[in-house]
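FORM 12-B: Structure-to-Sequence Request
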């Protein structure tokens, strides 16, 4: 599928309007304690605590998240983790459990969110997945991406209601699809002070193919949908807040052109990292660099 740039001039005011929601929407939050297992000893960790929380979002949705933090009563910064396009949802972070525990032990609260249509919120279709040959999912996927951004905004609404979170120190880490929805989130919501975006981009790999006669009537809608959700369109709205992009030199899904297009769209201060590896091979060192970025931003806040 070959698609030209096809960027539309969409005013910021329209983007803000589309993603806005009623601030009076009640959270109706719930919380349930979860057992924290030390991955080294396979026994209960008394140094950490975890809880499964839910709260309301737009369009009658309920957001589910796992919160992991040090087992103290101290107020701490928070980093929202958003997974990629996987049925596992927030449980896809299980292969980074040691890292999450390390971050929590070092004073960060990690909030792993299930995106709309994924994990425990999975639906009986492929909305939100990268399915270029499924233009019949065009509008559902557009709505999924906007819903995911609003869910992240509602996550901050929820965190601001907690007495153990420093609401002035909230960061974001997204991987793959987590970058696609995370850049608009950070661009539109200034409550996010710092952001790290892994293996994301802006290009044809995340679009629908409407070149065939069966779908050509959706061509204009596909271009509009892409421009309303394209992370590169929102990257410039992060001005004055630290951001980091990390991409793999061997990423065959995103590719260098799409990665560079997103990297180049960010405002300063911004850092780009290229690592040896593919789309699902982000090394621990990159996560460590992201943590250093968060610590620096929260310390100077």
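FORM 12-B RESPONSE
SEQUENCE OUT:
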């Amino acid at each position: 599928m070959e698609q030209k740039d096809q960027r539309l001039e969409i005013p910021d005011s329209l983007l803000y309007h589309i993603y806005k929601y009623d601030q009076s929407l009640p959270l109706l939050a719930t919380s349930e304690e979860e057992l924290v297992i030390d991955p080294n000893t396979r026994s209960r960790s008394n140094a950490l605590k975890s809880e499964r929380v839910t709260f309301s979002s737009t369009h009658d949705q309920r957001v589910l998240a796992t919160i992991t933090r040090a087992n103290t009563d101290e107020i701490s910064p928070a980093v929202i983790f958003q997974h990629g396009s996987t049925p596992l949802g927030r449980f896809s972070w299980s292969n980074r459990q040691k890292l999450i525990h390390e971050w929590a032990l070092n004073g960060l609260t990690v909030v792993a969110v299930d995106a709309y249509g994924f994990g425990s919120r999975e639906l009986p279709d492929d909305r939100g997945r990268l399915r270029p040959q499924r233009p019949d999912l065009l509008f559902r996927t557009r709505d999924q991406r906007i819903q995911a951004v609003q869910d992240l905004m509602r996550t901050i609404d929820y965190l601001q209601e907690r007495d153990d979170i420093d609401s002035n120190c909230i960061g974001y880490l997204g991987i793959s699809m987590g970058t696609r929805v995370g850049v608009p989130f950070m661009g539109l919501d200034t409550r996010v002070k710092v952001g790290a975006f892994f293996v994301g981009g802006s290009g044809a790999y995340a679009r629908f193919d409407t070149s065939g006669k069966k779908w050509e009537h959706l061509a204009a809608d596909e271009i509009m949908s892409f421009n309303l959700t394209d992370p590169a369109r929102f990257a410039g709205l992060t001005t004055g807040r630290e951001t980091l992009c990390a991409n793999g030199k061997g990423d065959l899904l995103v590719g260098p052109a799409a990665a560079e297009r997103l990297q180049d769209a960010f405002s300063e201060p911004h850092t780009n990292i290229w690592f040896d590896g593919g789309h699902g091979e982000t090394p621990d060192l990159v996560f460590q660099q992201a943590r250093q970025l968060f610590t620096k931003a929260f310390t100077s806040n």
